[in-house]
Structures are given as structure tokens and as C-alpha cells.
Prior knowledge:
By secondary structure, the chain is an alpha/beta fold. The protein has a six-stranded parallel β-sheet with strand order 2-1-3-4-5-11, with helices on both faces. Strands 7-6-8-9-10-12 form a six-stranded mixed β-sheet, sandwiched between helices. Strand 9 (260-265), helix 10 (268-275) and strand 10 form a beta-alpha-beta unit. It has twelve helices and twelve strands. The protein is elongated.
Amino acid sequence: MNKYALLKTTAFALASAAILGLAQPAAAQDEQVSACLITKTDINPFFVKMKEGATQKAEELGIELSTYAGRVDGDHETQQQAMESCIAAGVDGVLITASDTKAIVPLVRRAREAGILVIALDTPLQPLDAADATFATDNFEAGRLIGAWAKATLGEEAENARIAFLDLNESQPSVGVLRDQGFMTGFGIDTADPNQWGDEDDPRIVGHEATNGNEEGGRRAMENLLQVDPNLNVVYTINEPAAAGAYEALNAFGKADDVTIVSIDGGCPGVQNVAEGIIGATAQQYPLLMASMGIEAIAQYAEDGTVPEPSEGLDFFNTGVNLVTDDPVEGIPSISVEEGLERCWG
Length: 346
């Protein structure tokens, strides 16, 4: 079976079978297909799993894969250097989770002009169509699910909630904005400008703090917001490492039992934290699938020039999201912790 026939059997190929006649692969079909994966860090378990998915699929399809990562979440400069290296190498495709979704766009355009397929993973670029395609969780929906769950769990007390927002970083990459504004929508908060966070005037909001998506940042951010309002009772976190840090701070202040933490990622440690009551609910993503499908797309592009299409009714390819909790709420679809542990980051 040739590569094209093999790829047509995948879920991705069925969803993106149209061939754009003007697309030009970066390398001839008889040459070694090559790709780059550029993630925000190589420490965050989410991106570790993404790298695993890309590496496994590249080995399966015989693709030469180079991987790069920022030193911390928000490290645009290192990602910029990685993109320049990939362009110079003349790879067939680049998968990128951008730290600065606006500043990286000129280099993305340069790559595409060179005939390189560029796919944004997890984090849409700004504008979204700067990339050839985006494979991502519906991050707004992920936020909406945990916001709706938190509101329903509080019941009538939701009107008096004191909410702390532990966001990603001050550059406000699209993934952070979408999750934050999704939570607000689910909770019933007016988002003001939906393209940014921090301009809302709802009195229930204690404040926003950046975490850089890691445990230390989550702990520091939580400590800062507890100084603003020691009676806060709901904590939105951009991801589960930040949630873990927030819990440490709350526990140190003797507040852990009085606060509901919600998060997004659905990694195995995060789902285990739901099982232990540290996190009330999390929205589960599937980064291994996201990255492996991205590698399949690059192989398809190198084979015949096919450019991926978005999911029906969306402007990106939706790789799925599920709310994980053992305290389900009527009207909000969810899966159990047991199922979440079975599916974590597949």
C-alpha cells in the first residue's frame, strides 16, 4: 500500500481529502520527507506528549523529524530561531505551538512562500489563516465547559462568586484568550472585548495573573490574588500545572477546602488531581492525536500537495474535548474520572 492510500484510511484524511491545485510541496516525492515540530517548552507534560505523538508517527511513516522547544512558555525568540532553522533546512512541513501568536506570523509567511506546509497545533495564530491549517482543541468550548460546570456547581451562590483567573502570559496568545473568555461565557460573565482578557467589569472577578503555564507561576499567581481577596472561592486555571501550583498556595493559606479549582488539559496527573479532589473538573484535550495527525498531514502534502481542510462549520480542525469530573451536572456533557484516566492524552 503506498503512502497516499495508507493516509486515506485515517480519520484526518477522510476529513481533508480535497487537493488544492496551487499547492506546491517543498520537496520532490522521491526525496526524504522532513518535518519540524516547534513547541512552547519541552517540560510541560502536554508538549512532551505532543512530541511523543509526532515522533511515533514520523517513525511509522519514515519522516525525518527535527524537534525544537522554547525554554519557557512565552519564549518567542527561541521559537523564532527554530522556525528560521526549519526554513533554511527546506523541510516539507512545520508543526508549531506558538508562544507569541502574532509575532511569529512573518516567519510563517516566509515558510509558506518557500513551499513549506505550516500547521498550528493547539494554539491558533493571529490571524488564524496565517497558517495553512490549525489542528486544535476547541479552546473556547473547553473554557465554556468548565465555566458552565463551575456555575452550576455553585448554584445560587454563583451570583456572589469571587473568581481568580490564572492566565497564561501577558502577551495573551490566542489559546489563553479563548480559554479565559470561554470560561467567562460559561459562567455568565460579560467578556467585554472577546479578543482579550482583563477589560471586564464584573464585580465577581478578583483579578487576572499570568502563570506561564507552570506550577511555580500558578503558585505565585495564586498568592498574589489571595492578597487581593482572601475570600475568593473559584479559581480558573489555564492548565493543570498552574492548577497544581494554585492548590499548593491555597493549601498553605488554609483555603484549599473552600475553593473550587477548574482547569484545562486532561493529562493523566491532572485527571488524577480531579480524582483526589484537588481540581473539581478539567477539560481534556488530545495532544498526541493532534501531533500525529499533523505529521500525517505533512506526509500527505509531500505526496500530492494536499492541504488540510477544517472541520465542518469551523475554521480549524477540531481534535476534540471532554469535560472530566466525578460530579456531573445535568445539561453539561462530561466523562468520568475513570474514563478520563483511560483516555488521558491519547
